[in-house]
């Protein structure tokens, strides 16, 4: 059995209620962020993910460079067939964007 505090309304229980559940149900609520641990020996602890929330030097997360942007002279596909050019213009269609980028001297 485990004691958890609800983060959301759940069934007949309301947010903030502290309830006692079987370990497997409590872990399901913890995994879904529906509840949080209250503490004590009965409280289940989620599986460690290898990252310490209190680490002074957390791993940095760098965005992956977009290879299309590099090969297309800085043109960024923004979705729906639209492309942003390095000079700030937005053009519809890849070929049109490439042509417009080459005429402005950036590509």
Describe the structure.
Strand 4 and strand 5 form a beta hairpin. Among the domains are: 36 residues; 37 residues, no CATH class. The strands form 2 sheets. The chain has a 3-stranded antiparallel β-sheet. The protein has a 3-stranded antiparallel β-sheet with strand order 4-5-6, covered by helices on one side. The longest helix has 10 residues. It contains 3 helices and 6 strands, in the order ββαβαβββα. With 107 residues, it is α+β, with helices and mostly antiparallel strands. The model has no long low-confidence stretch (mean pLDDT 76).
Q: What is the topology?
A:
Layout: E1 2-6, E2 18-21, H1 23-31, E3 35-37, H2 67-71, E4 76-79, E5 82-84, E6 90-92, H3 94-103
Antiparallel strand pairs: 1-2, 1-3, 4-5, 5-6
Compact overview of the structure:
By secondary structure, the chain is α+β, with helices and mostly antiparallel strands. It has helices at about 25-30, 65-70, 95-105; strands at about 1-5, 20, 35, 75-80, 80-85, 90.
Helix/strand-derived category reads alpha+beta
What kind of sheet is the major sheet?
A: 3 strands, antiparallel
Number of helices: 3
- Tell me the helix content: 10-25%
Radius of gyration: 25 Å
Beta-strand residue percentage? 15-25%
The tally of beta strands, per DSSP, is 6
- Assign an overall shape: elongated
Calculate the terminal CA-CA distance, rounded to whole Å.
65 Å
- Low-confidence regions: none
Major sheet: order of its strands? 2-1-3
The overall pLDDT average reads: 76
